[in-house]
Amino acid sequence: MMTLQLGLSRLPEWFNEQTFPHLMYLDLSHNELRNLPLSLAAMPELRRVIAQHNPRLTAHWTPHANSDDPAALFRYLKKYAAGESEQQRHVRVMLLGLPLVGKSALLECLKHAPGAVKQKGLLNTIWHLVSTPPPGTLFCKACHHVLLR
């Protein structure tokens, strides 16, 4: 077992399967890692990677790194390296602007974009839309002006 807890933001270049061909357990907890190199999946005898308490770890690694199952992260790493799993990204967007400038039209276009289709039986993009005017605003339908209270 090897433990690297040095405040690392990435693994050193010398850390690879040629340097540690018989490494079975790797503990990368308590560092500043953002990503895990896919080269870890190529290490022939590596069976477990622990990476808890890495606050900068990107979102698709975090659930696996913080799982109660100690082998979850390595399983995900192997699948991701083999192309069997796609990186998940969640984005929250807020559109602000005057009435009738195209916010809703933009959302409709995004809903029907090529990336928003079903792939491999799963919905690739999920939309949750809440459209409300900001507090204290009134919209005059006759003249299309925003009136502030």
Topology (elements, then pairings):
Blueprint: E1 2-3, E2 25-27, E3 48-50, H1 62-65, H2 72-81, H3 103-111, E4 118-119, E5 122-123, E6 137-140, E7 145-148
Parallel strand pairs: 1-2, 2-3
Antiparallel strand pairs: 4-5, 6-7
- Structural class by sheet pairing and helices: alpha/beta
Largest sheet: spatial strand order: 1-2-3
Number of strands: 7
**SSE order, as H and E?**
EEEHHHEEEE
Helix proportion? 10-25%
- Tell me the span between the first and last alpha carbons: 66 Å
Q: Can you tell me the overall shape?
A: elongated
Task: Give Rg in angstroms.
Answer: 23 Å
Share of residues in strands: 5-15%
Task: State mean pLDDT (0 to 100 scale).
Answer: 75
Biggest β-sheet strands, sense, barrel: 3 strands, parallel
Could you describe the 3D structure shown?
The chain is α/β, with parallel strands linked by helices and 149 residues long. It has a domain at 103-148. Helices cover 15% and strands 13% of the residues. The protein is built from three helices and seven strands. The strands form three sheets. It has a three-stranded parallel sheet with strand order 1-2-3. A two-stranded antiparallel sheet has the order 4-5. A two-stranded antiparallel sheet has the order 6-7. The radius of gyration is 23 Å and the shape is elongated. Residues 117-129 have low confidence and may be disordered.
